[in-house]
Specification:
single chain, mainly alpha, 5 helices, globular
Length: 134
């Protein structure tokens, strides 16, 4: 197994674990804050926590030579990138709720920028056509 595959699996598992921790924290904070609701933040969290969309798609994945494989690839990537985007938006909504010091938002921008660059570099090595490289 290549190093890239191992890293991708590790990152996916870590992201899933962090997502579950965030979800559990949200439930705890929500139950401790009776009468306070942040509906947009909660709804985005519910939608983006449905990571089983991609898992469900794996069960329906056609073989590489099947005529519907192209459409499955579009679905799989669209759902994946949508969940990532919604998660990032939800993190910022959570920051707006907590109103932390500005340095924490800057740290998040730097971390997300570094992760985006890492993903672009990795996908360019795999010859995957994404918009962040030529």
């Amino acid at each position: 197994m290549s190093t890239g595959v191992i890293i991708a699996r590790y990152m996916r598992s870590s992201a899933y674990i962090l997502g579950v921790i965030g979800w559990a924290t949200g439930l705890k904070l929500g139950s401790d804050s009776s009468g306070v609701q942040h509906t947009p933040h909660r709804n985005i969290g519910i939608i983006s926590s449905r990571k089983w969309y991609s898992v469900f798609a794996l069960l329906l994945r056609p073989k590489k030579d099947h005529k519907y494989r192209f459409y499955w690839e579009i679905y799989h990537h669209s759902v994946g990138y949508t969940v990532i985007l919604l998660s990032i938006i939800n993190i910022y909504k959570g920051f707006d709720i907590l109103d932390p010091e500005k340095k924490w938002k800057m740290i998040l921008v730097v971390v997300l920028g570094a992760l985006f660059r890492l993903i672009c570099d990795y996908t360019s090595r795999l010859d995957i056509n994404v918009s962040c490289h030529k």
